[in-house]
Design a protein that fits this description.
With 442 residues, the protein is an alpha/beta fold. The chain has 2 domains: 153 residues, Cytidine Deaminase, domain 2, CATH 3.40.140; 257 residues, Rossmann fold, CATH 3.40.50. It contains 11 helices and 18 strands. It has an 8-stranded mixed beta sheet. An 8-stranded mixed beta sheet has the order 13-12-11-14-15-16-17-18, with helices on both faces. It has a two-stranded antiparallel sheet with strand order 4-5. The protein is globular, with a radius of gyration of 23 Å. The two termini are 30 Å apart. The model has no long low-confidence stretch (mean pLDDT 94).
């Protein structure tokens, strides 16, 4: 199956532009591709034809001029992009492709093949009552997913009917049967299965998530036992991702769990996240956060970043803080938020040999203070935010700062910077497989 993934702001702009007219309207989406994991077309740009670019237009039909199609086809071929041809249908009913659409798409598909454009391409039809999408000139329907403040499946012809088990009765009373179904169909990637990630996996399994990708390079140490849920002293030296898998499947024996013992600063490991619907970043390094957030923007996969900090001075605790922040389309990245250090990223990307040989890196990092109560508080905020992203739970803020010392929780807002190399349209946004990850390629 292939997804069509589009930023929520782009989908809103598309709808407002092509709907609400007496005649049918058209648009073309320029998309990059995701071929690994869950295959997808990732919308990078919307091309809107001018009035002169239509050959014909009426309340029940719209046809683009061949020279306009040739121009967008040339742009797509030069940039190695795929095309999604969009048109509207009248009325407020959920639209379906017509026989006229079938004939027009076959001609378009043949034209693109003659021009040597790499597949896949797609078609999308919109009405005031909804949308549907399929591969161009073929009957294969594709899922449409909008990504922004919320993660919403706009259209899915292949969705299987699922029911909620009686154990979820109290949750169904909170966010409805549809919300529970969404959780049960969601694939969640969790990076870092230590003090925060292990709690996140536990909570999500209890909520009904049944599909996980769990990534962590480390093995359990004795000093981890104060905060890694589901672990005991007999588990020392076992991989943390395996311990989390075991704990999830103890809660939900039928859960599908892919456990990866590896570091996301390596591109091959980071690409394990490409099949996820949403990511929880529970790592404690700048390098891993840098790579994970690139995945979020480059592949339009939202990520909830989780962090907790206990500051000390002369042996005394001076502050206890937490942060939960959504990363992805229409959100400021960690660089724009001033939360990443280029020097720390450089260090994290090095091998042990390279660190030892670098004259500017002295010694090793000291372990940071950590307690399970703070981790649990911050993870609960993150999981609640995730519920607000994927269900109808009315959770608004997408960036939260917790100060335990002052007993405050406040929303924050960072501004995306123009031209940012990560979160802007000039950066890696929506580039998919066209852009290598800024990670170790070995």
């Amino acid at each position: 199956m292939i997804d069509l993934r589009i930023a929520s702001s782009d989908l809103a702009a598309l709808r407002s532009t092509v709907l609400g007219h007496k005649d049918e309207r058209c648009a073309v989406l320029l998309t990059s591709r995701l071929e690994q994991g869950r295959r997808a077309l990732l919308v990078r740009e919307i091309v809107l034809p001018e009035d002169a670019d239509y050959a014909r237009r009426s309340p029940i039909h719209a046809e683009l001029r061949p020279d306009f199609v040739a121009r967008v086809t040339k742009r797509a071929k030069l940039a190695s992009l795929s095309l999604v041809f969009v048109h509207t249908h009248p009325g407020d009913q959920s639209p379906r492709f017509s026989r006229t659409d079938d004939e027009g798409e076959r001609e378009l598909a043949a034209f693109l093949a003659r021009r040597g454009l790499e597949e896949p391409h797609a078609a999308l039809v919109l009405s005031d009552g909804g949308m549907c999408a399929r591969l161009l000139g073929r009957p294969d329907m594709i899922r449409v997913v909008s990504v922004g403040d919320r993660l919403t499946v706009e259209f899915d012809a292949h969705r299987e009917e699922t029911t909620a088990a009686p154990m979820f009765d109290r949750q169904v009373r909170a966010f409805g049967i549809e919300g529970q179904k969404v959780l049960q169909e969601l694939r969640v990637g969790i990076v870092g299965l230590g003090g925060t990630g292990s709690i996140a996996a536990q909570q999500l399994a209890h909520l009904g998530v049944r599909d996980f990708v769990l990534i962590d390079p480390d093995h359990l140490e004795l000093t981890n036992l104060n905060r890694v849920v589901g672990a005991s002293e007999s588990d020392v030296d076992l991989p943390k991702s395996e311990l989390a898998r075991r704990h999830v499947q103890a809660i939900a024996p039928t859960a599908r769990v892919r456990s990866v013992v590896g570091d996301v600063v390596h591109a091959a490991v980071a690409k394990e996240l490409l099949s996820a619907d949403i990511i929880l970043c529970c790592t404690d390094s700048h390098g891993s956060r840098s790579v994970i957030q690139q995945v979020a923007y480059q592949y339009l996969i939202p990520c909830v970043d989780v962090g907790s900090t206990i500051t000390t001075h002369d042996g005394q605790v001076t502050g206890v803080y937490g942060r939960v922040q959504l990363l992805g389309p229409d959100q400021a990245c960690l660089w724009c938020s001033g939360l990443l250090s280029s020097e720390e990223v450089r260090r994290d990307m090095m091998s042990a040999f390279e660190r030892k040989a670098d004259p500017y890196i002295q010694g090793a990092h000291e372990p940071a203070p950590s307690v399970i109560s703070l981790n649990g508080t911050v993870v609960s905020l993150a999981v609640t935010m995730l519920l607000g992203i994927v269900t109808a739970v009315p959770v608004g803020p997408r960036h939260l700062i917790y100060n335990a010392s002052a007993s405050t929780l406040r929303p924050a807002r960072a501004t995306p910077q123009d031209g940012c190399f990560i979160c802007s349209r000039q950066g890696v946004f929506g580039r998919g497989d066209l852009q290598p990850l800024f990670a170790r390629q070995d």
